[in-house]
Amino acid sequence: MSTTSTLLFSGSDWNFKTLARVYDAIEEIALGELKLDVYPNQLEIISSEQMLDAYSSVGMPLMYQHWSFGKRFVYEEHLYRKGRRGLAYELVINSNPCITYLMEENTMAMQALVTAHAAFGHNHFFKNNYLFRQWTDASAILSYLEFAKKYIARCEERHGMAAVEAILDSAHALMDQGVFRYRRPPRLSSERERERIRERLEYEEQTYNDLWRTLPVAPGRDAKKAEEEVSERKRSLKLPEENLLYFLEKNSLILEPWQRELIRIVRVIAQYFYPQRQTKVMNEGCATFVHYFIMNRLYDQDRITEGAMLEILHSHSNVIFQPDFDDPRFPGINPYALGLAIMQDIQRISTDPTAEDRDWFPQIAGKGDWLEVLLDSWANHRDESFILQYLSPALIRKMRLFVLRDRADDPYCEVASIHNERGYEAVRAALARSYDVAANLPDIQVVDVDLLGDRRLRLQHRVKNGILLEKETRDETLRHVRRLWGYDVSLVGIDSETGEMLYECSSG
Amino acid sequence: MPYFIDRRLNPKDKSLGNRRRFLKRAREELKRAIKEQIKTGKIADVDSTHSVPMPARDTSEPNFRPAPETGERHYVLPGNKEFTPGDRLPKPGGGGGGAGEKGAGIGEAEDDFRFVLSREEVLDLFFEDLELPEMVKLSLKEVVAYKPRRSGFATTGAPTNINVARTMRNSYGRRIALRRPKQKQIDALAAEIARLEAQPNRPGTAERLKALHEELERLERRRRRIPYVDPVDIRYNRFEAQPLPNANAVMFCLMDVSSSMGEREKDLAKRFFVLLHLFLKRRYDRIEIVFIRHTHEAREVDEETFFYSTQSGGTVVSTALEEMQRIIRERYPSREWNIYAAQASDGDNIAGDSERCAALLNGELMQLCQYYAYVEIIDERETEIFGTTDNGTSLWRAYRTVADKWPNFQMTRIARPSEIYPVFRKLFARQQNVQRR
């Protein structure tokens, strides 16, 4: 760098030398001032076509082949070509090393912004948030995907594309029901371990002896005994089970080992993405907060030009734009805007609290060290708990949030609460609940199956707030369950409060 | 310093395989949609782009999702302006406030999404499973064209085919084996003789000279007896005649444009040929198409005239057949060409000419033709009368006798535009068993 100028770059063109110089400057602030803790970074430059490719393989650098990804691609490409949708500036993958895609079309200012946002903001969040730490294995995911891709390709060679596709279709239909929400999933096992499990499975299948089933049962069992048997049966199958894919993989009677492995692959990938769905607001908020802080700091140090800063601020404010509910552009609450607003609010409360803040947030108000509070919140919350914990009355007023109650049998919506003294708690709780992924997905569990009897798989849907399932897709999905299970499947809708049966349907 | 990787040079279209899988999966439905559109619309529309709704069946991805119009929901929305708790707002038409309804939002967008298929894709889907019947079979059965192919050497052949290298090798081997005196030896002897003759007075020279002369004569005699190149040395390049698959094809389109053909009939016939034309252009790169139109006299015309010009007159169908016969004789020897013909007519013919047509077909044409399709355009009211019976116009009745005799002769009737496509498919369905009777 020349001695007369402290500028990192000027103009909009970038090259690898400038990228590296900017990266070092950003790293200095990120690690030094913000005390971020990140995985090693790997920055990859890609073209727009490659970005479209990445979109359609759910953002992963490698993915097995399936027609649904092609469908997504045709769809995305269609929108992109018509100019209805732009492409993301970056894509970041929760892996170790953390892979960030930079688009080649970006200007240097944008590359700087994206580096700060993804390579430090998201990266820190991936490495430190408890959900990611506990539920995903960043260092194993890429090799696992490679294994999955190869394994599925091998299955296609051996068993035919149609057979593999059928299983994948069915497994994809149950992806939302293929995650453990409460129980911690097992770590991704190594290739060798998987091989051993597979061999074990094959051995068990080969040596399975049907004769044991025919052992005579003592005659004259009474009702109590039958009931005991049912509960014993449920216990042995670990029922009820919320993870349908897991249950089918382990207990389906008709699947071959390779089919079980396919289900397992889909399940593992669903589980890998589950934390991301629960931390959208926090993850984007964290990354936005980080890039905003770093870019401002670079500007303060005279290391980027005013022009570059203006460009950065322009795209920053585009990203955090939150239209009002009656605006035709309103797409829902912008997670970038909400996340950043709460985090900046935390910063304000920590350093410059009002009396109201002291009432609401006695632990953090006026604590001074806002960074510590933020780092702690990033590490230990998901969207639901984060909003419930940190959404302040001041911010509710600023965003003028209100709750609308929508009952199916009522032609009118009702304003339930607004941003006033009586409404703060309700607004905050309602907003937090809307980010509770587990609560918003239909709660469907395996409750019973008589393996020695008719083998009918009994599923139960616990209906919350009277929200039923879309009939057409429900029946179609049940058919997919049936395909994996091999025998009849029935689904019963039970009201979660009254226990009343609301509907019943079966795959027959 | 981070780790930079420049991926721009990596191969693009990583998802090409997935896209192909998707199109394959959607194929059946796309095909059905297009056929539906074409059946209801105009036949000529085949030759344009089509917008087809995103196929729903076979490409839907169902899952358990909440039904939008049930139960009770709470939406949190930003930007309240004048509401207070208890205010009641009419629901917007679409239902649902939108917040937290991302899944449904995406679903709707996909429903709106329509595929636009290019002209090529439409034609591909449209003409799938169709082909000219018996195209390859004949070529293999009656091999008539050959191409010479090198295969080793022969001891006999035409002088032009002498393989010099192989011949000289044989000759060299033979010369060594038979010890043919070399030119060098003879030259050396001749030089020695010349040297001795230059100084004749030396003692013993005479004897020496005599011996040398004898030796020289012996060598030359031997050289004459063992030729440099003997007929036994000669090798010829050997060629084998390899049968060539005969992929030359010509399609004769014969259309009746006489005054008995009304606007409707002409329109139907033209549509049939438009379809045939598109199909041939699409599926066969090197097919030739001959257009013949006839009234009381037949003429070969170009594409433009065939489809668009108007002309009228009496009807003598046999003129078209004669014209076709003449063209075949002149330009398309049946040894080299697969000949196909499609004829469209309303069946009206001048008295006595239908028998002549049948005779022409039976006599020579059907032997030359690979496949002959006759399409009769009839009145809608006539469909009931004729239906499947053998009754019909004079031409139809005459052609029945041809059809009975030749399995590669097909005849059918068209009464309305919607029948064109089924008939077309019937005539050109792939793997059609021609010997079905």
Automatic annotation (TrEMBL), chain A:
SpoVR protein-like N-terminal domain: residues covered: 13-438
SpoVR-like C-terminal domain residues: 442-495
Pfam families from the UniProt entry: SpoVR, SpoVR_C
Domain of life: Bacteria
Protein name: SpoVR family protein
Lineage, uppermost ranks: Bacteria, Pseudomonadati, Pseudomonadota, Alphaproteobacteria, Hyphomicrobiales
Automatic annotation (TrEMBL), chain B:
Residue ranges with Gly residues bias: 92-102
Alphabetically ordered keywords of this record: Coiled coil
Keyword Coiled coil listed: yes
Pfam families xrefs: DUF444 (PF04285)
Coiled-coil ranges from the UniProt annotation: 179-222
Region feature (Disordered): 48-102
Lineage: Bacteria, Pseudomonadati, Pseudomonadota, Alphaproteobacteria, Hyphomicrobiales
Protein name per the record: UPF0229 protein NYR54_05575
Family: Belongs to the UPF0229 family.
